[in-house]
Write a structure and sequence with these properties.
Elements (H helix, E strand, L loop, with lengths): L1 E10 L1 H4 L2 H15 L8 E5 L9 E8 L2 E8 L4 E8 L5 H11 L2 E10 L18 E9 L7 H14 L9 E7 L2 E10 L2 E8 L4 E8 L7 H6 L6 E10 L3 H4 L3 H8 L1 H13 L1
Antiparallel strand pairs: 1-5, 1-6, 2-3, 3-4, 4-5, 7-11, 7-12, 8-9, 9-10, 10-11
Length: 273
């Protein structure tokens, strides 16, 4: 399972707020990469959150055996991408395509083969400076929910159990990879997303929870594993938006930037006098 994570900030708010652009982005990127999708993009504008600064657009498309998610936080000028796929893809081309549509000043990325045991390398989580955590499980000998109904029921109740805020009912879908069925589930939460992919024949499963809110790193993994039974090969907790609070723009900075032209007008008037 190949996993690409991309964090970016100091981007263009108008683009990060463009629903049609986000839809087009999720629709075209897999095609340009030669990656198989199994549904049209799902795009959810989210502007009535508890924290106004965390509002924006959440969107995803199921790939065959994986997913492609995009979370924009337009007020903050930030966005986060996950591209998870069972087969290797051109990550340099993916990055180029992202930068063409959503240019940004600050960015970080990872590209790992989770099936081969490669681990995501990022700085230690700093709750004072980072955007949020991302929790991942790679499971062998999987014995948890593995049907459409079972995954739906698990995801329908999981957000409240781990202190997250669901903003849609779960989406579940079945695809086929190398002759075996893959049952995939994903739900959008106000904090970002929760996803699971179960390879029913090999009994391998891949789970991830991305949150823009820091959570109890002992309680949440324990709760998740109550039903995702199996042999956990890797449990990974990494930061997203590392050092974001150092680079993130404040409202005062945005106002100052938008009023910068006034200095030139005033200076020009004084020069004429």
């Amino acid at each position: 399972m190949f996993h690409y994570l991309y964090d970016a900030y100091n981007g263009y708010r108008s683009r990060l707020d463009d629903i049609m652009l986000v839809h087009e982005f999720l629709e075209e990127i897999p095609i340009k990469l030669g990656v198989k999708t199994v549904m049209p993009p799902f795009v959810l504008p989210y502007y009535n959150g508890v924290i106004p600064e965390d509002c924006g657009i959440s969107a995803f498309v199921f790939l065959a055996g994986g997913h492609f998610t995009l979370h924009t936080f337009s007020y903050r000028g930030a966005f986060f991408i996950d591209f998870l796929y069972p087969r290797e893809f051109d990550e340099e081309k993916l990055q180029s395509l992202i930068d063409d549509v959503f240019p940004s000043e600050k960015k970080s990325k990872n590209y790992v083969n989770r099936t081969a045991g490669e681990r995501i390398s990022r700085p230690a989580i700093d709750t004072r400076k980072d955007f949020g955590p991302h929790l991942l499980f790679d499971i062998d000998e999987y014995a948890g929910p593995d049907t459409l109904d079972g995954v739906f029921a698990y995801f329908d109740g999981l957000p409240s159990k781990v202190g997250m805020t669901p903003i849609i009912r779960p989406y579940v879908i079945m695809s086929h990879v190398d002759g075996q069925e893959v049952v995939s589930g994903l739900t959008m939460i106000a904090e970002s997303h929760i996803a699971l992919h179960v390879f029913t024949k090999s009994r391998k499963a891949y789970f991830d929870l991305f949150s823009c809110t820091f959570f109890d790193t002992r309680k949440v993994p324990r709760e998740i594993k109550r039903e995702l039974k199996g042999r956990v090969l890797h449990e990974t907790l990494v930061s997203r938006g590392s050092k974001y609070k150092k680079f993130g723009e404040t409202a005062a900075q945005k106002v100052k930037f938008s009023r910068a032209w006034l200095d030139n007008v005033v200076s020009g008037s004084r020069h004429k006098n």
